[in-house]
UniProtKB/TrEMBL annotation:
SUPFAM superfamilies xrefs: PLP-dependent transferases
Cofactor requirements of the protein: pyridoxal 5'-phosphate
Stated family: Belongs to the class-II pyridoxal-phosphate-dependent aminotransferase family.
Name by which UniProt lists this protein: Glycine C-acetyltransferase
PANTHER family associated with the record: CLASS II AMINOTRANSFERASE/8-AMINO-7-OXONONANOATE SYNTHASE, LD36009P
Length: 396
């Protein structure tokens, strides 16, 4: 007889396969740059979060190698024992300056940063108002905190106001927080931060913005909060070092008092080994580059607008994106999967995103142009889109 674990796993895997949710992982035998290699084929890459091309940047590689030579390959301990090196300190100073806050604290990933920071700030006596399309790491951080989770409809400010009012009037909660992505990763739309901050002031909510997709992209690189000039109004700015920054890691930027508290209460800081010297030095070099020049952001936006215009001119429907995230709406989940497969056969790598990540019937191909693409690559991608779009009768 099968062990309980084997039966459980077999059933769960089959259930995922039946729903078309059991994805095989593609394996790269190259850098994750504008051109990638999968199964010995070179493909134009429209699937990474490497917005500025920094994941393959020579200065970052060199900084990582130097850091390995000076500090070794591992930090050797958690941050709160003796895993904190001068590199971590320099990165945090650079992040605070970059974000325009008093201080910052780096974590090993964006995911564990949200888990650690949210659960260090709110608890079971509190309530958190959370946008319905917030990232999984926010949802998990909120669940872990034990606070009452009150979901408001995506970017629906009337719903947020109403729910904030009810929560306040109930007098059930010690503290209340509103939490949102700065840029929503599946549609590319931007949170209505000025309205969110106003509602937060009216009902006494703390404010937390996860700017994983806005940092390095919006507000001349400093992010969505800076884009709206709200640095003094948002209490907690969270970001990742894995997307535009090109490396790995997460961080919180805010008041010194906030950072002092997280250092003694955020569990990934206390109980998980510090990020490696190589990652930390590479991220530090990236932040210095972003502060020194906005040339990469300019290139990113130029490429994004070029691709978006090319696809729209062909007759494709894009989501109402306000950022380089470029989702082409296909509708039917199976057609979206076939579309992505055909793109790959024609030399373009872009992922189909389907239910439950996005609502049923809104299957899409999510394209991620970067600063590292050149016009020839984008032109070729647009040509392939035209061919596959006509073949599958998505465009005429
Ligand atoms: N927040 C958002 C909005 C994200 O999109 C992601 C990455 N998918 C994360 C947090 C987690 O960041 P990381 O990949 O650095 O763990």
């Amino acid at each position: 007889m099968d062990s309980p674990l084997t039966s459980f796993l077999q059933n769960e895997i089959q259930a995922k396969k039946d729903k078309g949710l059991y994805n095989e992982v593609d394996i790269l035998s190259s850098e994750n740059g504008p051109i990638i290699k999968i199964n010995d084929r070179e493909l134009i890459n429209l699937a990474s979060n490497n917005y500025l091309g920094l994941a393959t940047n020579p200065a970052l590689k060199e900084a990582a190698i130097d850091a390995i030579n000076t500090f070794g390959v591992g930090a050797g301990a958690v941050r709160s024992i003796n895993g904190t090196m001068t590199l971590h300190q320099e990165l945090e100073t650079a992040l605070a300056e970059f974000k325009g806050t008093q201080a910052a604290l780096a974590f090993q990933s964006g995911f564990n940063c949200n888990m650690g920071a949210i659960s260090a700030i709110i608890d079971k006596n509190d309530a958190v108002l959370s946008d319905a399309l917030n990232h999984a790491s926010i949802i998990d951080g909120c669940r872990l905190s034990g606070a009452k989770i009150i979901r408001y409809n995506h970017s629906d400010m009337e719903d947020l106001r109403q729910k904030a009012k009810e929560a306040k009037e109930s007098q059930k909660y010690n503290k209340m927080m509103v939490i949102t992505d700065g840029v929503f990763s599946m549609d590319g739309d931007v949170a209505l931060l000025p309205e969110i901050v106003e509602i937060a002031e009216e009902f006494g909510l703390m404010t937390y913005v996860d700017d994983a997709h806005g940092s390095g992209v919006m507000g001349k690189g400093a992010g969505t909060v800076k884009h709206f000039g709200l640095q003094d109004k948002v209490d907690i700015q969270m970001g990742t070092l894995s997307k535009a920054v090109g490396v790995i890691g997460g961080y919180v930027a805010g008041k010194q008092l906030l950072i002092d508290w997280l250092k003694v209460s955020a569990r990934p800081f206390l109980f998980s080994t510090a990020s490696t010297p190589a990652d930390t030095a590479a991220a530090l070099t990236a932040i210095k580059q972003l502060k020194a020049s906005d040339q990469l952001q300019t290139q990113l936006w130029e490429n994004a607008r070029y691709l978006q215009k090319g696809l729209k001119d062909l007759g494709f429907t894009l989501s109402p994106t306000e950022t380089p995230i470029t989702p082409v709406i296909i509708g039917d989940e199976n057609i979206a999967q076939t579309f992505s497969k055909r793109l790959m056969e024609e030399g373009v790598y872009a992922k189909a995103i389907v239910f439950p990540t996005v609502p049923l019937g809104t299957g899409r191909i999510r394209n991620m142009p970067t600063a590292a693409h050149n016009k020839a690559m984008l032109d070729r991608a647009i040509e392939v889109y035209e061919k596959v779009g006509k073949e599958l009768a998505i465009i005429e």
